Structure formats: C-alpha cells, structure tokens
Amino acid sequence: MRPKPAVRLALSMALLATSATLAAAPAAAQTPADAAISRGVALRREGRDEAALRVFQLAWQTSGAPRALAQVALAEQALGQWVDAEAHLVEALATRDPWVLAHLPVLQSALAEISLHVGRLDVGGGPPDAEVVIDGAVVGSLPLAAMLHVPTGSLTFTVRREGYIPVTRTVQVDARFPLRERVALALALAAPVAPVAPVAPVAPIVADAPPPVAQGAAPEPRPTTLRYVGYALIGTGVAALAVSGAFLGVNLVSAASAGSATPASEDPYGAWARFQASENATQQSTGRGQCALAQQRGSADAAQVRDLCARMSTSATVALSAGIAGGALLVTGVLLTVAGRSRAPGSASRWALAPWIAANTHGASLSGTW
Fold it and tell me: Which DSSP helix (H) or strand (E) runs through 353?
C-alpha cells in the first residue's frame, strides 16, 4: 500500500531533519569529482535537474566514485526516471563506500520513495529470441533471464521477431505486485504473387473503406460503456431521491396538518380532530395509536381517519422505497463511472520528492506533473 499524504509529509520532515544533522559533518578535501558534484548540486538548487544529471554522469564516468553514482540516482529521481534511479542507487549502496555509509539514512529514504514507482514485469511465451521492446528500445529477448524493472502505471510493450506477427499490449503495473504476461507470436504468412495480366489494371472502387490501421498500433483511448451506464444510473438515482423527498414532504405536511387540526376545521383533518377528541374521554391516542384505534370504530369520522392513515402510510412507503433505490443506483453509478474512466498512457499525475546532498548542506526538491 502506498503511503498516505500525512505519512509522506512525515517522511519528508524526517528526511530534512536527517539532512540537517548530516550537514554538521566536516567537508573533505576537494577533488575533481567533488568539484563536479558541487557544480551539479548547485544546478539542482536552481531547479536545473537535467543539467545537473549530465554533470553527475560525467563525474561518475571519469572517477567511478560511488558518491557520484548516488548523485546520479538522486537527479534521476527528481526527473522521474525511476528505473534508472533504482538501479544506480542500489549499485551505489552495495559499494559500502564511506561517503555512502555517512549519508545512508538519506539514501535509504530516497530508495524507499523510488521503489514506490518501480514495478516488475515478466514476459513469457515464444518464439525464442523474440525481442521485447518498451518505448522503442529492446529491453530483452525471450526467454527473459529475469523480470524487467519498469515504471508503474500504464505501460505498453511489444514482442516481435522477423517472420512473425508482432504483438503489442498495454498493461497496468503496480509496485506491490509482479505482473506476468504470456505472448505467443503467430507466423506471418507470405502473400501469394498474382500473375501479371496482359490487360491494363483497373483500380477497384471501395465504398466507405475504413482507414488502414498500423500493425501493433495502440488504440486511441476513449470512454468505455461502463462510464455511460454509470452516468445513466447516477441520473436515475438522483431522480429517485427527488421522488423520495417529495413523498416524504407530502407525508410530513399531512401529519402536521392532522396534528394541528381542530374539530371545527374542514374535512378531512377536522374528522381526525373530532375522532381524537371523542376518544380522549376514554383513551389518549395520537399518531399510529389513533390509526390503530380507528380500525376498531365504525363512525364516519373513524372511516375518514382510516383513509388518512392509509394515504400517509402509502406515501411513507413510497418515500422509503424510492430513497433506498435512489441511493443504491447513485452509488452503483459512481462506481461504474470510476471503473470505466479512460486510462490513457501518461495521463496520470505524479509527484516526486528527491533529496540532494552536498559537502556541507543537504536539502530536497519537490516536483510533479498533472
């Protein structure tokens, strides 16, 4: 389960507190790698994470220092390059370098945040040596030696091999659960060569021909049927709740009118008042008690009271039934609307908290996309 906003805020405060403690450590003598890292950190403070990443990568390539590799990972985290950030930070932590050990709490907190954005994907099937392609890059061949580390959320991959029909799939990757997909490519049949006719070819006329669809192209995302059904149920539920409210209001008005009537008022509520007054000499009865008592009497006033009670009971039943049905339809409609919402790749919002570490100071940068 991903941390709630309050938990993430607490993690951020703990990260900054740890950074303040580490800031008290004495700075080491400057080396070319340290100077490059200092330039990169200055760029990150200015919000220029891409430029900082290039500086850190050059420092890592020229020095091989684990602290440079850790800075590369933190810059990649700030840019949302989760898979590379995880791989580089795990490699840096595995070195047990003194600088890495001195900043271990900050780096481990960063790795925990990065891991929330990286999932595992296992692609199986065949034929052997078929390529697995993600974002235009070949990431492996079947059978895969290990599960692929991929970003969470919507992901599109293609399995291809010459002589076979490629397969493209879009899946939802969750950091909590590994995802396994099995793909079996079908052989591509060669089209027969038509003999050359001695007459001039005539172009066929095709009416309303659909546009060609590129092989393996992902379909355009569009709202699903569930979403439209959800909208219809929400509208019906609101209407049912309105009917329930109307009948409930009628019932309340009727009960109030009957309760405040006097024997001299016009029927039907005058009959209610007269019947109640006539019974008060022997028994106090109001509301349901009076309705039950009217069933036992045969006077004209008792008959009108029975009719009033029947009408109020009917309106109360309709109000209750419409309220229950409207609530159920409204909840079901909302659930179907949420389940049927379009999931276009890259449409989800994301945010990232990425720390940066310098010789004498520390901090963090917050970035997001919507």
Answer: strand 350-357
Specify if 29 maps to a domain: yes
Q: Parallel, antiparallel, or unpaired: how do β-strands 137-141 and 131-134 relate?
A: antiparallel
3-state SS record for 131-191: EEEECCEEEEECCCCCCEEEECEEEEEEEECCCEECEEEEEEEECCECEEEEEECEECCCC
Task: Give yes or no for a contact between 216 and 168, defined as CB atoms under 8 angstroms apart.
Answer: yes
pLDDT digits (tens, 9 = 90+) for 96-109: 899 899 999 999 99
Compute CA distances 188 → 162, 169, 185, 297, whole Å.
9, 18, 9, 90
Give the other-Cβ count within 10 Å of 342's Cβ: 11
Distance CA 355, CA 114 (A): 11
Regarding whether 111 and 14 lie in a shared domain, the answer is yes
Q: Which of residues 294 and 127 earns the better pLDDT score?
A: 127
Residue 364's domain comprises: 5-115+350-369
CATH number of the domain bearing residue 102 = 1.25.40.10
d(Cα 252, Cα 238) in Å, to the nearest integer? 21
